[in-house]
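Lecture notes, continued. The same structure-token format from the folding unit now serves as the input rather than the output. Read the line below as a description of shape only.
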């Protein structure tokens, strides 16, 4: 009877699986994220093929950049030869029936690790740990160019995650000017300066060389700010919006879901994944049951789509 009266379900089509790809010679396991590896381009393509064969429909790509290719603006993100763009192209050429999202941010491509171009003088230590570091408006132009490069390579969705003001508008205009009217924008509209991104920064090698992201990501001590972030992105033409992190932000997911009609995604982030694994390794809880419960909670709060490192396991568990 419990089964017949349940009203929350998680369709496999709603899951988005993050993939980290780079120029390493072989898959490189991420120590803080059991089951997740950085993948060379060929392995990333094969992983997508295999999981698509098992029914997974959506993937989001992150690029890992060797230090020699990092620069002050993160220009390598827009290079057709960069791993993310090569994977996009290969998946497009293979005609796989999947939706490919490209994470659109510069932190994995800049030599200082921030999500955009720095304000003049910021790198010299004047930033003092908090406050504005990134030159918002100069970063917008680069976002537009990179979005076009990702769409050229075959991205179905570009997903800006840098929390720059005006990013959706800049990206939408650049895509339209380049004729990419069909490429959708999934904005990380509501993204907090969270302590739960640590393992991701290992995986993506996108940590900051100084300072933090409080100048552009949101303060989790503010309960209403999400509304203006959401409305701004919708007005600029966001096709879908993301809340991030997810498990500690169920109230925010619910608020966003009730305040708009576009699809709402939630990102169950690396630290939220890692802590379930760490507790399970100690025998404090059952990984499968705790992961399912958490994913159901995110869905119940109102997420239409869930970005999760558990996606391959959820394929079997659901
Ligand atoms: C890049 C980005 C981050 C994540 C996704 N895109 C890290 C950050 O903002 O520091 C985090 C994802 C995760 O923790 O799983 N801007």
């Amino acid at each position: 009877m419990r089964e017949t009266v349940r009203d929350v379900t998680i369709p496999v089509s709603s899951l988005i699986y993050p993939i980290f790809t780079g120029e390493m010679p072989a898959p490189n396991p991420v120590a803080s994220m059991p089951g997740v590896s950085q993948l060379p381009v060929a392995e990333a393509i094969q992983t997508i093929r295999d999981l698509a064969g098992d029914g997974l429909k959506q993937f989001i790509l992150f690029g890992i950049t060797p230090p020699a290719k990092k620069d002050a603006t993160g220009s390598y993100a827009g290079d057709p030869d960069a791993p993310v763009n090569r994977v996009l192209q290969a998946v497009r050429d293979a005609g796989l029936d999947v939706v490919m999202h490209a994470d659109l941010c510069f932190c994995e491509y800049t030599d200082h690790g921030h999500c955009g171009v720095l304000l003049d003088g910021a790198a010299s230590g004047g930033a003092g740990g908090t406050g504005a570091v990134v030159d918002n408006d100069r970063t917008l132009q680069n976002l537009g160019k990179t979005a076009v490069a990702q769409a050229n390579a075959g991205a179905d969705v570009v997903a800006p995650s840098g929390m720059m003001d005006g990013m959706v508008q800049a990206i939408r205009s650049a895509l339209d000017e380049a004729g990419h009217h069909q490429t959708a924008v999934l904005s990380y509209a509501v993204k907090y300066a969270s302590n739960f991104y640590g393992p991701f920064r290992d995986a993506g090698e996108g940590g900051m060389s100084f300072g933090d992201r409080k100048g552009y990501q949101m303060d989790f001590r503010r309960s209403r700010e999400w509304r203006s972030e959401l409305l701004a992105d919708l007005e600029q033409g966001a096709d879908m919006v993301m809340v991030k992190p997810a498990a500690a932000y169920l109230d925010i997911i619910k608020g966003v879901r009730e305040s708009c009609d576009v699809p709402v995604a939630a990102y169950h982030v690396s630290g939220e994944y890692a802590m379930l694994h760490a507790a399970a390794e100690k025998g404090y809880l059952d990984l499968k049951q705790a992961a399912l419960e958490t994913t159901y909670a995110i869905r119940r709060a109102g997420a239409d789509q869930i970005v999760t490192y558990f996606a391959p396991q959820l394929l079997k568990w659901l």
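Point for the exam: DSSP finds eleven helices and ten strands in the chain.
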